[in-house]
Hints:
Blueprint: H1 9-20, H2 31-43, E1 54-60, H3 77-86, H4 91-99, E2 102-107, H5 124-143, E3 148-154, H6 159-170, H7 186-202, H8 210-217, H9 220-234, E4 239-241, H10 244-256, E5 264-266, E6 268-270, H11 273-282, E7 288-292, H12 298-315
Parallel strand pairs: 1-2, 1-3, 4-5, 6-7
Helix pairs in contact: 1-2, 2-12, 4-12, 5-9, 6-7, 6-8, 6-10, 6-11, 9-10, 10-11
Amino acid sequence: MPPVAPPDEAARADLRRHLDRLPLPTHALGRLEDVAGWLAACQARSPARPPAAPRVVLFAAEHGIAAAGVSAFDAGETGKRLAAVRNGTAPTNSLATVAGADVRVVEVGDGPSGRIDREDALSADGLQDALAAGVQAADEAVDEGADLLVPGELAVGVSTPVAVLAAALCAREPVAVVGRGSGIDDLAWMRKAAAVRDALRRTKTVGRDPEALLRVAGGADLAALVGFLTQAARRRTPVLLDGAAVCVAALLADARSPGARSWWLAATRDTEPAQALALEVLGLDPLLLLDLRAGAATGALAAVPLVTMAARVAAGS
């Protein structure tokens, strides 16, 4: 796809000049200044407005690889997590209330994705449908007035395809990207490493093509995240990145649409090595170090108040 137009660097430079005129030592506000500058560039105005309508969009799907015993939970846990978000009792809901964000859930995929150590995750049509669902979710959010997007995922076993995609795109061995995910024990970690190894072998035929990798070794939620992140950048809307699934999807989205990364800010570092790899390649330094592994946009939501504070302090209000 064609490159994404960058944020407004003139607005960022104008904010920098404004901050330099404050009666403070140079860069006295540290990374708050960087966040305020990023937001100003994304909004093409200086100083930036504090986000007034953050929106969480969670993509829910089932992964066939969950049947391989790679998670501390069985596949039915995805439905429980989905129900908790919808009835307002999930951690995401509590954090969203504090952040002043509304929460939307998008279910994608027609049943579990293929078991990626043995078969493709998605059909060609399934991939395009999932990408389109992500694009539609981004368009709906922006059209309804969302000014800061917070994507996440709801799925058991998602860290396994995430590890495969990170390894395939960045040419790493399985041991470098396989983490503990949901808190698995050593036996489950070995099963997961074997699944990643076998799935990674299957990606050799498609190289580093982002869409082909999603079809072979991804899943509907990950493809939807790629579509969402790409479209958010094209709609010139800032995004806070969450954990490993979102960050690896961002890596694929930027490979698919170069320059999209300029519209994203990394919120937190989680415990997955695949996320650390993705952030390193994207050149994004997370704002918070919370060692989260809950997913579902919890890490990014924790950073929303920080973005608001950065905008307010830079504007002097």
